[in-house]
From TrEMBL:
The chain crosses the membrane at residues 6-23, 30-48, 60-81, 102-122, 181-200, 207-229, 249-280, 300-320, 326-348, 368-385, 397-422. This is Sodium:proton antiporter. GO terms for cellular component: plasma membrane. InterPro entries: Cation/H_exchanger_TM (IPR006153). It comes from Nocardioides piscis. Residues 15-422 form the Cation/H+ exchanger transmembrane domain. The lineage of its organism: Bacteria, Bacillati, Actinomycetota, Actinomycetes, Propionibacteriales.
Length: 432
């Protein structure tokens, strides 16, 4: 295959990615499904010898590309959320009840469940099994667009009421926050792999990797978002009020500043970006500039997702699954069909809030939220991050298993999202 043929295929893929959202939004076919399938077909063609799709030979590239993809998605998710979060208001915190439950209960249970599968079924060392659990535990903001909220509500337009519900909100906010909260478990697995882990190291992990880095990441993000919001919307100097100029690149500036400063301060940059986006959204909620920034981020996210999914599809038909065996299939199926749904259902069902108040879910809605734990680009990033920081036993098997889980999630959740959400929306309309 010549370089010109590659350009042509990429152009066709970009055109398809541009057309897919409008063509597939009412049928049981998601854009990620089509993009992965296209990548698999492209992978069947003869590729240039210089093109290497071995993840072990491209750890750094995979890590950086997926890192930026997740960052862009986190900014978009934060800008899209319309439900306020006032940390000093108990009533406001209660409206986020499903999110806190998914983060505090479902995510650790998922890490534990996958780690047990990795140790018991796959025969992995405990530290590697924990890493597998940490990598696969977070839901993904990149590939979960079919079950997330849409664009932000501004004075220029209103969101479809069907999109402003607790199901979409819970899944969106969960995906925005748990990408950063998976990091403590990744670091714990790396500390265990390094050896010599005792009580002192456990205390250091809890104090530094759990408490300190989370607090710093959120604080830096809120500070950057608040400052840029004041600048863009309320600056005394007209030339600095970017909202009046309609320049949406502020969203990317905010993303890069929040991430870079949080990491320099040794905080979690993913949490910083999401917190920054929410703070920027709160600076002036009814302004059309919010929709402009979200539109820019959404386009960039679509482009990055195209690249990642095409590369994943091509790799699938070019040897990525050579190390795959029945153990990886069992882990992937068990996570998607048993571990995540059960962990999330337990988190949402215990002392559940009444479904007729904000933050409360009906029993059917709890089952839907529990089922749609989409796995995606974030898992590739975490595995790449771990692989670039420590030599991993069974690394080829880990890449194959994580990739298989993502592809299964893309097709399973892609096929079911449209009919399930449509049925719930119809039921809500009838009740109203």
């Amino acid at each position: 295959m010549t370089p010109f043929a590659i350009y042509a295929l990429l152009g066709v893929s970009l055109l398809v990615a541009t057309l897919l959202p409008g063509l597939t939004h009412r049928i049981a076919l998601s854009p990620p499904m089509v993009l992965v399938a296209m990548g698999m077909l492209i992978g069947l063609l003869p590729l240039p010898d210089s093109v290497s799709l071995d993840p072990e030979a491209n750890r750094s590239a995979i890590t950086h590309v997926t890192e930026f993809t997740v960052l862009v998605s986190l900014m978009g998710v934060g800008l899209a959320l319309d439900r306020r979060l006032r940390l000093r208001s108990l009533a406001s915190l209660r409206t986020w009840s499903p999110v806190w439950r998914l983060l505090a209960v479902a995510m650790p249970l998922t890490v534990l469940g996958v780690a047990l599968l990795g140790w018991w079924v796959a025969g992995l060392a405990p530290a590697v099994a924990l890493l597998l659990g940490a990598v696969l535990a977070p839901t993904d903001p990149v590939l979960a667009s079919d079950v997330q909220v849409g664009k932000p509500v501004t004075e220029e337009g209103e969101r479809d009421p069907d999109e402003d519900d607790d199901i979409r909100f819970a899944l969106t906010a969960e995906a925005g926050l748990n990408d950063g909260l998976a990091f403590p478990f990744v670091h714990l697995s790396l500390l265990l792999l390094a050896g010599g882990f005792g009580a002192a190291e456990l205390a250091e992990w809890a104090g530094f990797y759990v408490v300190f880095k989370i607090v710093v990441g959120v604080a830096v993000g809120l500070l950057v978002g608040w400052g840029l919001g004041r600048l863009a919307f309320h600056s005394r100097t007209a030339a600095l009020r970017l909202a009046e100029q309609g320049e949406p690149l502020l969203a990317l500036a905010a993303l890069l500043m929040a991430y870079g400063l949080a990491e320099l301060a040794q905080g979690y940059g993913f949490l910083a970006v999401f917190a920054c986006a929410m703070a920027l959204r709160n600076a002036e909620r009814g302004h059309g500039y919010q929709a402009d920034m979200h539109a820019l981020v959404e386009r960039l996210e679509r482009l990055m997702t195209l690249a990642v999914l095409l590369a994943l599809g091509i790799a699938m038909t070019n040897g990525l699954f050579k190390a795959m065996d029945w153990r990886g299939v069992v882990v992937a199926l068990a996570l998607l069909l048993v571990v995540r749904p059960l962990a999330a259902w337990v988190a949402l069902a215990i002392r559940a809030r009444k479904h007729d108040v904000a933050g409360g879910l009906h029993s059917d809605e709890r089952r839907v939220v529990a089922f749609f734990g989409v796995r995606g680009v974030g898992s590739l990033f975490y595995l790449g991050y771990a692989a670039t920081h420590h030599e991993l036993p069974n690394e080829d098997w880990l890449w194959a298993t994580v990739s298989l889980t993502i592809v299964m999630s893309v097709f399973l959740h892609g096929v079911t999202a449209t009919p399930v959400m449509a049925r719930l929306d119809e039921r809500r309309d009838r009740a109203a």
